[in-house]
Amino acid sequence: MSEPTRVLIWNEYRHERERQEVRDIYPDGIHGQIAGGIASDDLDIRTATLDEPEQGLSEEVLDWADVVVWWAHLAHLEVEEEIVQRVHQRVLSGMGFVALHSTHDSKIFKRLLGTSCSLKWREANEAEILWNLQPSHPICRGIGERIELDHEEMYGERFDVPEPEELLFLSWFQGGEVFRSGCTWRRGHGRIVYFRPGHETHPTYYNESVLRVIGNAVRWAKRTMNLPTECTNPDPVRSIT
Amino acid sequence: MSEPTRVLIWNEYRHERERQEVRDIYPDGIHGQIAGGIASDDLDIRTATLDEPEQGLSEEVLDWADVVVWWAHLAHLEVEEEIVQRVHQRVLSGMGFVALHSTHDSKIFKRLLGTSCSLKWREANEAEILWNLQPSHPICRGIGERIELDHEEMYGERFDVPEPEELLFLSWFQGGEVFRSGCTWRRGHGRIVYFRPGHETHPTYYNESVLRVIGNAVRWAKRTMNLPTECTNPDPVRSIT
Amino acid sequence: MSEPTRVLIWNEYRHERERQEVRDIYPDGIHGQIAGGIASDDLDIRTATLDEPEQGLSEEVLDWADVVVWWAHLAHLEVEEEIVQRVHQRVLSGMGFVALHSTHDSKIFKRLLGTSCSLKWREANEAEILWNLQPSHPICRGIGERIELDHEEMYGERFDVPEPEELLFLSWFQGGEVFRSGCTWRRGHGRIVYFRPGHETHPTYYNESVLRVIGNAVRWAKRTMNLPTECTNPDPVRSIT
Amino acid sequence: MSEPTRVLIWNEYRHERERQEVRDIYPDGIHGQIAGGIASDDLDIRTATLDEPEQGLSEEVLDWADVVVWWAHLAHLEVEEEIVQRVHQRVLSGMGFVALHSTHDSKIFKRLLGTSCSLKWREANEAEILWNLQPSHPICRGIGERIELDHEEMYGERFDVPEPEELLFLSWFQGGEVFRSGCTWRRGHGRIVYFRPGHETHPTYYNESVLRVIGNAVRWAKRTMNLPTECTNPDPVRSIT
């Protein structure tokens, strides 16, 4: 059997410690819930959080990881520039990156995509329907035609991201907005997935389809090689004279 | 008649002052040669250089510009982070950006694209042929099937950039390499063009076809609107209850 | 002043002649309403319909046209193969093609895109909101954040088209579906726009924003050159020996 | 262990029977050489040729196949329209399609892509270098920086295809041309690969790297699901009243 995929689930882990209503939903943190929810023999899963040494993202753990899942919201600005660059370099050399929900506004996501990644938002406990546009894509496997969530935060267009290379999910919101909720891009040798759902006040990461998309995404985005991205100065292949 | 397009040609302007062989080719600087070479009634052109106050890129001049043309090589690391952010924000709000030659390794280009933008290179005075892949694209208008340059620096693949949205030119080099020499991307509301030729030791910016591509590119990439990219929190369009 | 853009608006023109409720809305046909609605000094507009000689698409009129706007629904299968090929070749050589609403299922649209172009649909007079994703794109110019239509036919994903090169509008429907309602692709030297709204039983083509999008689209997609697409067998550029 | 991938290698098989110089290189036909060259435990390989019943492409064999590899040159026009439609439908429902060399001009390839797929060509036994642009892509795995072929037919740009979704290989030719030699697109639920090398008068399909790319491509493009592409008329998900 092939080696398991090494998955690092990184969570800001502030909401869960600071607000009882969030802790009630995610007593082990969002990272803990996702780690349990996608557990499988072919995945070797670790978790890390912002308030750990080196913000949970040492060179060692990043050398280990094939793919990082990221959830953050309140403390984007606390992530140190050096850590951002460290993760950025790993993605360019082939590590996968799965950005969940409010990670849209993180330094690392914006660094990878080059845009503001801004959007409209509203907390109104409204219904969301995610339509599966690419049922034959590995990330959408096992998901039916749609995922319905009774209560979620609304994210609305215009989502300021580069045109996705693959658009996998589109969301409908009760209040009238739409959103590109599942997107992929490549940067360097790394693969990036954005998946929208998961506001901290809703039990979204208990939804089986949401967990399946995340599990599919880590398998799709995982590192397959470790390639350099430096400039080189070679001799000609063919004689110039 | 409509307003002329406001073009800022920014040049590092170090090679020309430091090396006689470069000054012989570009006595007015690369910026001066390009400014003269693309001059036209529908363009209002200014130039700026790295060693001017605010590195030539004040808020005022950037508010003025519809599009910036950028040439740099030696001193990428001297461009201040604040200036990089200033230009980045302008591009996201709609200003065009035309990156020439060694600008591939500038902070601002890498910030916009999110990758290392690394490549292979060789200074061997070898022949380059640029093939025009999209003769009906506005940037390629008036260029025939190909542009031939007798002596240029070689740039070779793998060019570590996100997949171009439009691939306009492909280069052949005498020594055996190939390169994606004309590419476009969109970031935020801004349009980005990369155009490869123009090593400082060759008179490439006197070539009529090369000048025509740059002139076409500024017209294609110019700002058409000034749009914000901030997150907003709107009321529902449709009643949620 | 430059030459006006030559626009051919082609309509199946069956619903309007066969059903009173449609004729009441479009007494001059959908083609007549659009022609009047986008009239402008910079556009030279003609109309044509299926039941005219050569199905309204003679070599002469296609040689004349810079861009064709197409509306059809009932009679897709009546369009002759020769006519489909004639239009196809014109698009590949540079003529623009703007496909409206049920044109998604026409032979020519499927021929250009290579897919089934299938979708979900429902006639339930429900509300539609079209969100403008690219306000700085020429096709979206002058359209605000969104277009609201009180009653339209629903089109829902999965829309079986190649990933759009530019996704301009996303629709929200009252019944829970979403749709990629404004899309562009390039084929050969031609530019293709798909724009969703316009069911024959609704006065959609009287909406100022809908008309503006169509007017913008013909200007964006119009032919700029007439280029061949044949294989050629050239001598080497560089000596091979 | 998972089921082997079912690969159908389809060859026109005329050159090999009609010209001694081709038969000397490919005594078992190009299909036979590729079948042997990519043989592996995880692939279940069949071959078929144009002059067999139903042109080698019965409903049964297409129902069986997860992916088709296609080589053709002289007899594109002999492939019956019904067969083209049969293959087209299979690709849209999820079957992979790997187009080799002169298949660029086949009916099925042009039907899938929607363009003329024209190009420049020259038979001059010149050297070709294929540069690997995406070493971390599954199709490029195990291929180094480049593939060198001492003698091949030249194919040159402009290759009239829709912008590739992934550009994997770029070719350099001794005579001065370049070519997008490895490309992928998606159509419906199917994945399409174009790979350039393989003129019938050269022993290209004995090259280990060329065979490896073809083997990688069939594994990447293989069917993963069998999905319909028909229009459907569903009830609303959400109450409209």
Automatic annotation (TrEMBL), chains A, B, C, D:
Q: Which Pfam families does this chain map to?
A: ThuA
Cite the InterPro entries for this sequence.
Class_I_gatase-like, ThuA-like, Trehalose_catabolism_ThuA_prok
Q: Where is the ThuA-like domain?
A: 6-221
Q: What is this protein called?
A: Trehalose utilization
Record the organism.
Answer: Stratiformator vulcanicus
